[in-house]
Amino acid sequence: MKDGDDFMIEYGRSIRWFNDYTAEVEFSKSTNFDFMQIWYVKGEILLDKVLSPKELHILKSNFPVMIHAVYDIDDYDTYTDKLIRILNFLGHNEVIIHPVCESQNVNKDTIYTIADKIHKTNLLLNQNNIKLYIENNSVIDKINYKPEDLKIVFDKNPDVELLLDVAHIDDYVHLEKIIDVKYPTCLHIADKRFNVLHEHLPLGKGELDFNLIFKKYLHEFDGKIIFEVVDTDELILNSKRTIELILNNNNQNHLR
User: Fold this and answer.
1) So where are the chain's domains?
2) Is cis: bond before 53, omega within 30 of 0?
3) Of 48, 57, 69, 219, which has the highest C-beta tally within 10 A?
4) Rounded mean pLDDT of 41-58?
5) What does the pLDDT look like over 139-195, one tens digit per residue?
6) Using CA atoms, how far apart are residues 11 and 256, in angstroms rounded to an integer?
7) Model pTM greater than 0.85?
C-alpha cells in the first residue's frame, strides 16, 4: 500500500447481466461503486435485456464499465478487431482477457500458443493505447492456471498486467507462487471452499481468509478490485464492506 493520500483502490462489480441494465447502474451509483465489469463472449457484449448495439446503450448510461473478454484459443484472431472498435467507441483504455481453451485439447505447447496470441493481441491494443490485463484460471481450465504457465505468458508479455482471481487459487502456497511470477494490479474477489474445484461465493460463505490474504500476500496491493458476486444486493454490499474494512484497517496500521 502507498502512504497517505496516494493510497487509492477502485471498486468495481461484475454486472448481473440477467437484470435490467438501468437498475444495475443505479445500484452501482447509489452504493459507491466506481465501475462495473461487463462480459464480452464470442464477439458479443453479454447483457440480456439490452438491444444491439449494446455499446451505445452502455455509453448513453454514463457510468464507467470495464470489458471482460473471455477468449478461447481461436478467439484472438476472430473477435479482437470488433473488441477494439467497441473499446474505442466507449473511450476505454483498459481491457481484461480471460484466456481459456475449450475448443482444443490442451497439451504442453498450448500455453506457448496462447502466450503468442496474447502478444499479437497486445500489440494491436497498444496501437490503440489500451492496457491489457490477463486473468489466471482455476484448475478446471487446465491452462494459464499453474504458476509455470503464468510465467510463460508474462515472460512473453512483460508489459501486460495480471488480473488475479483470488477464488481461482488452490491454496495459499498457490497464491504465493502466482504473485512471485507477477504482482497483480487488478483483482477478482469472491469466496470459495477449498474442496470445490471452482466457485465464486459471496464473502463469508466460503473458506478464504481475506484478512490473511491482504495482510500477508497482497499487503502492497493498490489498484482495481472487482467483486465477482452476482447475488443479492445485500450479499454484494456485504462483500464490498468486508474488503473495505480490511483495507482501511491495514492502511491505518501502515501509517502508525
Assistant:
1) 4-255
2) yes
3) 69
4) 96
5) 999 899 999 999 999 999 999 999 999 999 999 999 999 999 999 999 999 999 999
6) 25
7) yes
Distances from the Cα of 69 to the Cα of 41, 43, 237, angstroms: 6, 9, 25
Residue owning grid cell 484460471: 137
Mean pLDDT, the chain, rounded, equals 95
Integer Cα distance of 54 and 51 in angstroms: 6
* Helix 172-181 / helix 147-156 crossing angle, nearest 10 deg: 10
pLDDT value at 59 more than 60: yes
3-state SS track over the chain = CCCHHHCCCEEEEECCCCCCHHHHHHHHHHCCCCEEEEEEECCEECCCCCCCCHHHHHHHHCCCEEEEEEECCCHHHHHHHHHHHHHHHHCCCEEEEEECCCCCCCCCCHHHHHHHHHHHHHHHHHHCCCEEEEECCCCCCCCCCCHHHHHHHHHHCCCCEEEEEHHHCCCHHHHHHHHHHCCCCEEEECECCCCCCCCCECCCCCCCCHHHHHHHHCCCCCCEEEECCCCCHHHHHHHHHHHHHHHHHHHHHHHC
Q: Domain 4-255: what homologous superfamily?
A: Divalent-metal-dependent TIM barrel enzymes (3.20.20.150)
